[in-house]
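Reading is simple: the token line describes the chain's fold. The lines below illustrate.

. . .
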Amino acid sequence: MRCTFPALLLAFVSPFLAARAGAQPDAVEVAGAEASAVRFEAPAGCGDVDALRRATRALLAGPIPVDAELDGRVESTPEGFRLRLRLGGSERDLRAADCAALLDAAALVWALSIDPVAALQSAAESNAPGSGSATSEAEAAAESGTPPEAVEALAGALADPSAAASAPVASAPASAAPRDASPAHPRRYRLRTAFNLDAGALPSVSTGAELELALRLERVRVSVGARGFRARRGRVQAGGSAYGDIGLGAGFVSVGVPFGRGRMQLEARTTLEIGALWARGGGVAFPGRGRAAWVAAGLGLGAQLDVGRGFALVAHADAFVPLNRPLFVIDGVGSVYRPGSVSLRASLGLAFHFGSRVSS
């Protein structure tokens, strides 16, 4: 199956056609008048609002109505360029490797919303006769999730532009809302709770729990939270019955770089952890308590699997290096424990994503 850029573009604009079905411009440009509610921003070399007006006039073969509205913005992305277009109550995204193609796309969408007949005639005339483009464009519209009525309308209009006014697009439901800009775009906020394991910070492997709130920006995720680990028992190194139970509680700030699309995503992150080690002595006549600061920096890798309805399973593996290693002792008896030079962590939890979607 052959699928051309015009085909994808016509599939892209079909919701606008449905919303404007049967509409004809009731106000046209007069000498010196320009549509005032028009905004088009693009990087240098991609064209400007004047170029957009010229391209739209060419498609309409006439003036632009003074009440026509359009809000478009072209942004650079790692894959090329992205057009965010708002027209009336609808908003859609379109991507291309060439930014000039997106200006042409904006002109065609705008022209179709003003005068579908003239715009479809221009689009049909730009296709070589006998190329089978009408079929390809209808197929592209179907693959993009366009309503069946609009698919039929596009195929018929390209085959016979003069029949566009009575094409089924006029009966397409006006409530057919555009799809989400991109399901791959994540929600802005994430609330996560997890079960943790630690080896190295305490006398033996310890279990714990954490709660995290994360903010997703365009390319990074910033997280804050708190975690705690159950106390583990350390024995006085000189022997005997004396011991100390030592636990850990800390807050943390993480900055991660997510990568990958779809249901599975990975994330590389760095974390600063600040908290306290606490100890409670035992096995002596007068047991005491103690506390010492805990500061550690860590690097880790995480994985997230979306399971639907905003929920995801999240796993992390991190290695922390303590910036201080306090020694716990029992006075008159001996030393009990000093944290290791590396603390290894593993966590598995459930996250809930909410808020608006992040553009990328």
Helices lie at 5-19, 49-60, 99-114, 116-125, 133-143, 148-159. The longest helix spans residues 99-114.
